[in-house]
Design goal:
Layout (H helix, E strand, L loop, with lengths): L2 H42 L9 H14 L1 H13 L6 H14 L6 H11 L6 H31 L2 H5 L3 H7 L2 H14 L1 H15 L4 E4 L2 E3 L17 H28 L9 H17 L9 H11 L6 H44 L2
Antiparallel strand pairs: 1-2
Helix pairs in contact: 1-13, 1-14, 2-11, 2-14, 3-4, 3-6, 3-11, 4-5, 4-14, 5-6, 6-9, 6-10, 6-11, 6-12, 10-11, 11-12, 11-14, 12-13, 13-14
């Protein structure tokens, strides 16, 4: 072993030791910055303009869950396309339980939870983990494309656009042509994206082995063989589901609109595209911040600045809407996961009782 190899190995080991610490430091700094910024805007804004209307928050929670249905269907389709037999109910249960796991440090927690819940429900762990990674990358990639398409139309504040390079700023002066150009480029790049998506998914997906139907672990420290990764997804398939996934962000945009109404903003349905662009942009930035569990802090920072720059929204209302949107979405995820898990438990119990009576 050469000295260069030994030095490189030491650097890798050092990075692996320091990275967890660095992630928590970055996360703490982001939370501190966002908290300070939110408190400043809250104090300087018109606090009296914030009035909480709970029915609108309930509507925001319901719309949030509805918005994820295309992703649930995509994941179910991917699983069955690669030989799985899991039912839509089991896939939905694992999907929303995985959503809660995103608050566990480490993005792989979502995949491990979903793979574990489907291990004895008709889906091999490797298929479950990889297809879940595909689904996440597709929906977040579409979110980034939607945010970029709408950026010059409705989302980015004028002061931000004015600071852009001249070439980009001139493109923003023709928003319709810019948006169409983004869509055309995305469609043309789909075959390349499909291939890259497969490589990224396999890189991000933690290797999973099945120790028992209800117990999943990563293979370190075990001699169990790792299941081979499934094949790539097709370009036509990816393109169709990308267009379908746009509905996710449109519905989540409506959820933000309901949250704004909940804090007293006189929001109109004509602002739907604004809400969609803001939600998709902020959500993608939160997803891209690998150090932040659930994008916590990063998503709020982006959304807070976007809302505060919009006319008709006071600074205090922007802060309240940002905080309540996270709360409404988290409450919806908890209720969905608990409700589906309870229903699944009752199904299993009923099936066990029926089988016991049959063999009695």
């Amino acid at each position: 072993m050469t000295a260069e190899v030994v030095a490189e190995s030491r650097r890798v080991k050092l990075f692996r030791r320091l990275w967890p610490v660095l992630k928590w430091v970055l996360f703490a700094l982001v939370i501190a910055f966002v908290g300070q910024r939110a408190w400043k805007l809250w104090r300087e804004g018109d606090v009296g303009s914030v009035t909480i209307h709970w029915p609108w928050l309930v509507a925001a929670s319901v719309l949030y869950l509805i918005g994820w249905l295309p992703s649930v269907l995509l994941w179910h389709r991917l699983i069955h396309g690669l030989g799985g037999t899991s039912s839509r109910f089991d896939v939905s249960r694992a999907y929303f339980a995985g959503h809660l796991a995103k608050y566990i440090p480490g993005k792989a927690s979502v995949l491990l939870v979903r793979a574990g819940m489907l291990a004895d429900r008709g889906c091999r762990p490797s298929v479950s983990a990889l297809t879940s990674t595909y689904e996440v990358l597709v929906v977040m990639g579409v979110g980034a494309a939607v945010g970029l398409t709408l950026a010059p139309v409705v989302v980015w504040p004028k002061e931000v656009v004015d600071r852009l390079p001249t070439a980009i700023r001139s493109a923003f002066e023709h928003p319709l042509a810019f948006g169409i150009g983004v869509v055309v480029v995305c469609v043309i790049l789909v075959p390349f994206v499909a291939r890259v998506l497969g490589l990224i998914a396999q890189k991000l997906t933690p290797p999973v082995v099945s120790v028992s139907p209800s117990h999943l672990v990563t293979p370190s420290g075990t001699n169990n063989p790792i299941e081979p990764p499934p094949s790539q997804i097709g370009s036509t398939f990816l393109l169709g589901w990308c267009f379908f996934s746009v509905t996710t962000w449109l519905v989540h945009g409506l959820s933000l609109g309901c949250t704004l109404r909940a804090v007293g903003v006189q929001a109109s349905l004509s602002d739907w595209l604004i809400w969609t662009g803001e939600v998709s942009s902020a959500s993608f930035l939160g997803f891209a911040a690998m150090f932040a569990p659930g994008g916590l802090g990063v998503r709020e920072a982006a959304l807070l600045e976007l809302l505060a720059s919009q006319p008709g929204i006071s600074q205090s209302q922007a802060v309240a809407a940002t905080v309540l949107l996270r709360a409404a979405w988290l409450a919806a995820e908890i209720l969905a996961a608990v409700g589906l898990s309870w229903k699944g438990f009752r199904r299993t119990l009923t099936r066990s009782v029926s089988e016991g009576e049959r063999f009695r």
